[in-house]
Design goal:
By secondary structure, the chain is mainly alpha-helical. The chain contains one helix and no strands.
C-alpha cells in the first residue's frame, strides 16, 4: 500500500516536471 502511494506521488511529480519543462 505504501509503495502504491509512493508510485502515485512519483507519477504526479513526473507529470508536474513535464508541465514545467513544456
Amino acid at each position: 500500500m505504501l509503495s502504491l502511494l509512493y508510485f502515485c506521488l512519483a507519477d504526479r511529480v513526473e507529470k508536474l516536471t513535464f508541465r514545467c519543462a513544456q
